[in-house]
Amino acid sequence: MAEHLIEFRNIKKSYGSVDALGGIDLYVDKGEVLGLIGDNGAGKSTLIKILAGVVKPTCGEIIVRGRPVSGWNAGRSREAGIETVFQDRALALQQSIVHNIFMGRELVGMFGWLKLKQQLAEADRLMREIGFTSEAYTPRSIVGQLSGGERQGVAIARAIYKQADLIVLDEPTTALSLAETAKVFQFVRQVRASGRSIILIDHNIHHIFDIADRFAVLDRGKIVLEADRSKVKSVKELVGFMEHVARAASAGGGHAKAAGGVAP
Ligand SMILES: Nc1ncnc2c1ncn2[C@@H]1O[C@H](COP(=O)(O)OP(=O)(O)OP(=O)(O)O)[C@@H](O)[C@H]1O
Predict the structure, then answer these.
(1) What CATH number is attached to the domain comprising 81?
(2) pTM recorded for the entire structure
(3) For 34, which of 161, 164, 184, 199 is 20 to 30 Å away at the CA?
């Protein structure tokens, strides 16, 4: 069996009587963008919090590069090379790009002196690596003066500095214009081109369709569809399936499930 970068096997999470996740089997491979789609309350946040090690699953196994990891927590998640960019991005807007990238992990030399020159050079390299092409900005630019898409880029650069192999982006295009969304997706493409993986959560199916290599649709704590981009003919087909899932939910029925292709 092929070795995945990260794999969830039968991950469950209950909050009292609420089953937020009811047995998730999901994997991410090296160098791919996995689009995670689901309505409000489907369990997306719970899933990525488990991945980040900040929420403990009720049961299930997490396998990293083919090896089950016991005692999964935030430290193990970081060691596995997983970094999550949450919606607020946790950026210090009054500070420079370089400050934000190195925040809490500054390069220091003997006697605790900050290696500012090296930090500036490394920040510049990271910005170029993810495709920060605008000449208007340097590592000393203030993050608050950047556009929404560019701020997302700074958060991604910080994740790469932290040696991320898998970057989880939680709704990175919320409240962004089309042009800014395009910038974020350009960063995502660069990250994928570097061989890193991305889990992209986005409410906008069109966005996910444009960029993901594979989709996973979560519905009331279960994966109801997993499909390669190449197997899905059009965004219309994906939207049709999502509508079918929603109809089944509002009718109080069981989970709509699609095997192989997408058509329900
Ligand atoms: N700390 C908690 N205590 C109790 N129930 C919770 C908790 N966190 C999540 N839930 C429940 O688990 C289910 C999944 O929630 P989750 O936040 O993971 O969904 P989501 O897909 O991220 O939704 P959204 O897009 O609205 O953030 C929901 O029914 C939610 O009410």
Answers:
(1) 3.40.50.300
(2) 0.89
(3) 161
